[in-house]
Write a structure and sequence with these properties.
two-stranded parallel ribbon, binds heme C, 443 residues, single chain, cytochrome-c peroxidase activity, metal ion binding, 15 strands, 14% strand, 13 helices
Length: 443
């Protein structure tokens, strides 16, 4: 047991590890929005183009700025930045009276055989906004029930359990619909995650299989097209998307209503006639060059360096291993040798995720399967940059639906394969728990 523990500690990179080519020690509001220090000069202008496309508000077509028009007809936000403020995370509304500003709701229906399909009228995502003349799809609201947890040292924590309701249907009753609310996750090291090979991800499944704890994650294999080999999904909260390019094109399509080569048709279903008849902003609205610029921008953002390690942080790092967090929140991986741009190749990345799906139990489940992931399976959330969350945005949420207002609340929602880790945190002494949280804040 002691030998296993020492082995685990060796897996966690020593505090303060920094690859100064690709990381930054900035811990200000701009911390997640800076380029990698070693970004080649030749890429600066494309990086800046990508930043503008990501930050700016898109406009309705036709317009005097045809490069950035085509918003909607149905959309959730005017810009990418709205849901990923400062390239960090969004949050959930605090009450049913408050609209979702950096959160969205995915939809599906099931048939008699239990197969899952996009909603026949509303599609796979509720678009709460629309251009003039087109009805919006409806409104989503979050309601909370409070649940309290008492920790071993007597501290009481109030958790809030969300449920989502839909109202104001623009195109007829929603019917029996499966919903999944999601806040915008932080966009750290997106290109590096894209540059990790399937084999590197699979190595960890072997490691987990050798553990006595019974924590074995599942790769989310995805087949983009019949003529392409499957690739492990790694983007999105259920790892339902395999490549960064696809993730970005889908975000433009679903969240802003901007078409691209991969999503050439507006996201209107057959019954949404005013949506289908609305003017287009181009064929497609997002050019290949624009997509490539956003991809480069998100890929070459500097990753945050962990804070300097103190005695308490070191002690917290030990708690992270002792509570078995480390089995899912894999401390380090190395990107593929042949990754492009070359700046991203063969880098050690300390994302604190195995990029695998884990059953997190009924309390976190959304009961809405997505591709091969079940309603209770989620991708291990990367923890890098966790301590910067509240630096880059005033108010943030944790977990897929932002129900947790603090990192401790997020830990206390862990169930299923992570139940023992959660229970270990509840049993910790005050000093152990504070050290664990200090370690997480140092990332
Ligand atoms: C309405 C809110 C919203 C807007 C607007 C939005 N996103 Fe997101 N974004 C999300 C959510 C929610 C997820 C997680 C989605 C999921 O797992 O299904 C996400 C995920 C992502 C991811 C993957 C992150 C990860 O950890 O895997 C990327 C990259 C991304 N968005 C880029 C963009 C870009 C580029 C735009 C603008 C075109 C954009 N987003 C606009 C809410 C938003
Ligand atoms: C069985 C795998 C597993 C174990 C063990 C585990 N986690 Fe997690 N963790 C996850 C998954 C999966 C998520 C995403 C859940 C969601 O979004 O609903 C997550 C999310 C989190 C988050 C929220 C991150 C964010 O960006 O919102 C924190 C913080 C966290 N884990 C910390 C810990 C700590 C600390 C431990 C040990 C006490 C731990 N986890 C143990 C799988 C695990």
């Amino acid at each position: 047991m002691i030998r296993l523990f020492i082995l685990l500690l060796a897996l966690i990179p020593a505090g303060g590890f920094a690859d100064t080519d690709i990381s930054s020690d900035e811990r200000s509001r701009r911390a997640l929005a800076l380029p990698m220090p070693a970004m080649p000069d030749a890429l600066i202008s494309q990086f800046n183009d990508g930043r503008s496309l990501f930050n700016q508000m898109w406009v309705i077509a036709p317009s005097t700025t045809p490069d950035i028009d085509g918003l909607g007809p149905l959309f959730n936000s005017l810009s990418c930045l709205e849901c990923h403020p400062g390239n960090g995370r969004g949050r959930a509304p605090d009450s049913p009276g408050e609209p979702m500003r950096s959160m969205l709701v995915r939809l599906s229906v099931t048939d008699d055989e239990g197969n899952v399909w996009p909603h026949p009228v509303y599609g796979e995502q509720l678009q709460e906004r629309a251009i003039p003349g087109v009805p919006a799809e409806g409104q989503a609201r979050v309601h909370y029930e409070s649940v309290s947890v008492t920790l071993a040292d007597g501290v009481e924590i109030e958790l809030r359990r969300p449920t989502i309701s839909l109202s104001h249907p623009g195109y007829g009753e929603f019917g029996d619909v499966l919903v999944s609310g999601r806040i915008g996750p932080p966009l750290i090291g997106m290109g590096l995650i894209d540059a990790i090979s399937d084999d590197t991800i699979l190595q960890w499944v072997d490691y987990q299989s050798s553990l006595p704890e019974g924590i074995v994650g599942r790769p989310h294999w995805l087949q983009a097209a019949a003529d392409q080999p499957p690739r492990i999904g790694r983007f999105g909260v259920k790892a339902g998307i395999a490549t960064l390019e696809r993730q970005i094109a889908q975000a433009f399509h679903e969240d802003l209503g901007i078409t691209s080569a991969a999503f050439p048709r507006e996201n209107c279903t057959a019954g949404q006639t005013a949506c289908l008849a609305a003017p287009s902003g181009g064929d497609p609205e997002l050019t290949e060059q624009q997509l490539a610029a956003v991809n480069l921008y998100l890929s070459l953002l500097a990753i945050p360096e962990p804070a300097v390690e103190t005695e308490q942080i070191r002690f917290g790092r030990q708690q992270f291993a002792a509570a078995a967090c480390i089995h899912c929140h894999r401390p380090a991986m190395t990107t593929a040798k042949d990754a492009v741009p070359a700046l991203l190749a063969n880098r050690q990345v300390d994302l604190y995720s195995d990029l695998l799906l884990h059953d997190m139990g009924p309390d976190l489940a959304d009961h809405r399967p997505e591709a091969d992931a079940s309603g209770s399976e989620w991708r291990t959330a990367p923890l890098w940059g966790l301590g910067l969350a509240e630096q880059v945005a005033d108010r943030v949420g944790y977990l897929h639906d932002g129900r947790a207002r603090t990192v401790l609340e997020a830990i206390l929602w862990h169930g299923g394969a992570a139940q023992a880790s959660r229970d270990a945190v509840i049993e910790m002494s005050t000093a152990e728990r504070e050290a664990l949280l200090a370690f997480l804040q140092s990332l």
